[in-house]
Amino acid sequence: MNIKDFSSLVGLSPHTLRYYEKIGLLKNVQRNSSGHRVYSTKDLKWIEFVKRLKETAMPLEGILAYARLREEGAESVSQRQVLLEQHQGHLKAHIALQQSHLAALEEKINLYKKGKVR
């Protein structure tokens, strides 16, 4: 699929996709005889994972580190696992903090509903 269709499918701009390719986050994108990018199902699965990491606030440097390890193949599986486990810990802490904020907000809203705040 071409960059326009792929861009629409994954929800990233063509500029972002080209940037990801430039920095090495998206590698080995095939080209057709005209030199235009042709994305595969493999590219789609990878970008979906990259987006998930970004949406969970993994820094781009961390995603790039994961991508470099992924390129190394099977010998880097344990290192990738450690990297994802570290991110999981950060994500759990962030979720806990957000839950605390939500509880405080709900408490304040309940005070307003009871007429206890003026």
Automatic annotation (TrEMBL):
InterPro entries listed in its UniProt record: DNA-bd_dom_put_sf, MerR-type_HTH_dom, MerR_fam
Entry keyword Methyltransferase: no
Start and end residues of each HTH merR-type domain: 1-69
GO molecular-function terms, A-Z: DNA binding; DNA-binding transcription factor activity
Pfam families: MerR_1
Keyword DNA-binding carried by entry: yes
UniProt keywords, alphabetically: DNA-binding
Name of protein: MerR family transcriptional regulator
